Amino acid sequence: MADSISGSRENFRFQIVVVTVGTILMVTKFVAYFMTNSVAIFTDAMESIVNVIAGLVGLYALFISPKPPDKDHPYGHGRVEVISAAFEGMMILGAGLIIIFSAVESLYNPKPLQQLDYGLIIIFIAALVNLAMGRTAIRIARKNRSQALEASGKHLCTDTLDSMGIIAGLVVVVVGMHYGYNVAWLDPVMAILFGAFIMTTGARVLKGCIDNVMERAEEDTVNRIVECLREHRHDDWIDIHALRVMKFGTRYVVEFHATFPRNMTVGQIEDETRELEECIIEKFGDCIELTVKSEPCRDFSCKICNRECDIRDAKFGGMIEWNEDNIVRKEQHSPNDE
Fold it and tell me: What does the alpha-carbon distance between residue 20 and residue 9 come to, in Å, rounded to a whole number?
């Protein structure tokens, strides 16, 4: 539990840094926009507004999510991070739409570009800061299993890509204008392209939130559980099935059914269940809440059971190899499954 709490605190502290730095960069980018009249730089500034607002929502989510379960929230408050990430996804989509509308208007009513060289320097420095912040946020989020912080980090990295693309395009505009070519139209065109790119990023963030709400199993987590069970498997563990993995903020709720020999005593089954729980908790730490439901073996289980016992009805034919596909099925495995 201590590791989970310290991880949540680290997430919260870094999110404060994200919001603070994001606010400074937002003001800086708007200064660059008013200096240059560049719609492409306006694109970058608008996305910074999204960074700050979504960062504040994420900060609230990271404050609420570590709270322990209570009678109204038996699985804790971790799902608030999904709401935070969904809000950020919708903000990104909205920013993309505003950028596209502004760019289209600028195509028909262009403003003269000015001081692009100074604007480029400001946007380049902001892009480097965003990249450092985004990569650090993703690293901390994955270490501490925070969906809200990871969404913020991915958005900052996307913002960096947008900025670098805008910089490359504006360099072309500056060089073209220097040699007397009328390439100012590239500015709103770039804004439209990056507005569309921003919208796809928002759609991906929303898709991840929908997957989480729909209890889509995390493939990596399921694979790690299967690997752990294979590593510690012995003859008394006849079968494992009905694996379910649910994520609540930084915590996982894991359930599965375990088949044990039906001639075992209650005490022996309790010992085997405890061994199952310990091997998984040892691998995942205190971020996991595990429930194991024990079931007695059936007549068809003899063919997949290598245990010596006095109630065997059939010869052993071979164990079922657990994998991420068959371990989630609801029913006990039988020889016909192979």
Answer: 17
